[in-house]
Design goal:
About 10% of the residues have low confidence. Helix 1 packs antiparallel against helix 4 and helix 4 packs antiparallel against helix 5. With about 375 residues, the protein is α+β, with helices and mostly antiparallel strands. The chain folds into three domains: about 130 residues, Four Helix Bundle (Hemerythrin (Met), subunit A) (Up-down Bundle); about 120 residues, Histidine kinase CheA-like, P2 response regulator-binding domain (Alpha-Beta Plaits, 2-Layer Sandwich), CATH 3.30.70; about 90 residues. Helices cover about 55% and strands about 10% of the residues.
Length: about 375
């Protein structure tokens, strides 16, 4: 992953963090004593500061640190989220969002407004005498163009991989994992098919194959586990470093027998952890739009095919009409599913409205609050 990809990933994470921060501040306004909400807001600001420091966004880091210091005092009980502090926190959150947007677009935020907010944040802090020391913060930066780390010699690892049915249900393929392993060292593969039932008793939804790998590589165990990272929850994985081999190479047959020896432990595959529900992934909207267009074209051609078949005056109950009706139902289900993917939540729209209402109330000297 290039530095530009990492940078874009950081800004995508910032969107979620800023949303969590804004939502937390509104909840804090309703319940000032909710420590969980205070901690949630603090973590969001802290995460933004840490990521910005890695990319040397000094203005964003400096302001986020001052904001974080006030939140830290709030969660320590040295401050209270009263009517005097909450407007300052809301304005600081708005300016933090402006700084993130400016850093993403290569522009600059309102420096004068930022300086004024820094004064407000500092004034909100309790007089503890060590505030100056607390503001001494040096962000850690990352050099994304480092040379590869020197190798520390080769090691041999024995890897037991027992996939569950969920692994195949989510479109994963063990062949890809084997190919990835072979690219980081010398790989020997042993397949255990003893649990494979006869053809008559075969259940396509059941995973019956298991693998044992012997990998000699200059990379360590973390590199091996990284390959299995996305399937770890849908499999049983054991990685252990093999003992040093004897000076005399053993014959091929005993080695194969050694690789097969862990097979009796295979029933542990039934204890694979359940895959968490409610997971989401980020997909470029252009790809989603293309999928929507393709499905739309498919529905149109399905309708044209239906009209063409109707002109043939086929008898009711014919195989063609039954198959066409099933195709029609599948097309409708696919269209509804794809449109549900493309649907966007309206929550972000109202989140922008909260800021508009606050700024309008501040400009007119009136008190206003948007309730959704």
């Amino acid at each position: 992953m290039s530095s530009d990809d990492l940078r874009e990933t950081f800004f995508l994470e910032c969107e979620d963090l800023l949303e969590s921060m804004s939502e937390g501040l509104r909840l804090l306004q309703d319940d000032p004593r909710d420590t969980d909400t205070v901690n949630s807001v603090f973590r969001a600001v802290h995460s933004i500061k840490g990521g910005a420091g890695a990319f040397r966004m000094d203005d964003l880091v400096g302001f986020a640190h001052s904001f974080e210091t006030v939140l830290d005092s709030l969660r320590a009980g040295n401050l209270s989220a009263d009517a005097a502090l909450m407007p300052v926190l809301f304005r600081a959150a708005d300016h933090l969002a402006d700084l993130v947007e400016a850093a993403r677009g290569g522009g600059t935020a309102d420096a004068e407004r930022g300086e004024a907010l820094l004064v407000e944040l500092e004034a909100a802090l309790p007089d503890t005498g060590d505030a100056d020391e607390a503001l001494d913060f040096a962000p850690m930066t990352l050099d994304l163009d480092l040379e590869p780390a020197p190798t520390t010699g080769t090691a041999t690892f024995r890897i037991r991989f027992v996939p569950s049915a969920d692994l195949y249900a989510h479109g994963n393929d063990p062949v890809i994992l084997i190919r990835e392993l072979s690219q980081i060292g010398d790989l020997e593969v042993s397949l255990d098919s003893t649990a494979l039932p006869t053809l008559e008793a075969l259940d396509p939804a059941r995973a019956a194959l298991r693998w044992t790998f012997t990998l000699t590589t200059e990379q360590g165990e973390p590199a091996i586990r990284e390959i299995f990272e996305f399937v770890e929850d849908a499999s049983t994985l054991e990685v252990e470093e093999a003992p040093e081999p004897d000076p005399v190479p053993p014959p091929t047959a005993p080695v194969e027998a050694t690789l097969q020896s862990p097979v009796p432990e295979a029933p542990r595959a039934t204890q694979s952890p359940a895959k968490p529900s409610g997971q989401t992934i980020r997909v470029n909207l252009d790809r989603v739009d293309r999928l929507v267009n393709v499905v739309g074209e498919m529905v149109i051609h399905q309708a044209m095919l239906t009209q063409a078949v109707e002109r043939l005056s086929l008898p009711p109950g014919s195989d063609v009409l039954i198959g066409l009706e099933e195709l029609k139902q599948l097309s409708r289900d696919m269209q509804e599913s794809v449109m549900a993917i493309r649907a966007q939540p309206i929550k972000p729209l109202f989140q922008r409205m909260f800021r508009i209402v606050r700024e309008a109330a501040e400009a007119t000297g009136k008190r206003a609050r948007l309730v959704t």
